[in-house]
Specification:
Helices cover 0% and strands 22% of the residues. The chain is mainly β. It has a two-stranded antiparallel ribbon with strand order 1-4. A two-stranded antiparallel sheet has the order 2-3. Bound molecules: FE2/S2 (inorganic) cluster. FE2/S2 (inorganic) cluster binds next to loops. FE2/S2 (inorganic) cluster binds at residues 11-12, 64-66, 68-69, 75-79.
Length: 83
C-alpha cells in the first residue's frame, strides 16, 4: 500500500450516501472534491487510485479525510493519533 498524502481537511467528512449508488473515495489526497475522487490521482505517484464502492443503503457516514484509516473509506479515529 502506498503512503497517501493528507487532504486539506485532516478529519472525517460527514456525508449522506445514497443506497445503490457507486462512489469513489480519494486515496491520494489531491482531489478538490474531498472525500471523493475528482481524477487528480493521475498527477499522484504511480499506483494511487480511488477506492470504488457501492453504498448498500441511504446512510449518513463519516468518511476518512486523513487517508490513514484502517477501515477504508470510513473514518476509524486514526486522525486523532500523532503521525
Ligand atoms: S479522518 Fe482519517 S481516520 Fe478519521
Amino acid at each position: 500500500m502506498s503512503q497517501s498524502a493528507p487532504a486539506d481537511k485532516p478529519g472525517p467528512h460527514r456525508v449522506e450516501l445514497l443506497g445503490g449508488y457507486q462512489y469513489s473515495w480519494c486515496t491520494c489526497g489531491l482531489s478538490k472534491y474531498q472525500p471523493f475522487c475528482d481524477g487528480s490521482h493521475t498527477m499522484a505517484p504511480p499506483g494511487a487510485k480511488p477506492i470504488v464502492f457501492i453504498q448498500e443503503k441511504d446512510q449518513t457516514v463519516s468518511m476518512c479525510g486523513c487517508k490513514r484509516t484502517g477501515t477504508r473509506p470510513f473514518c476509524d479515529g486514526s486522525h486523532n493519533q500523532q503521525a
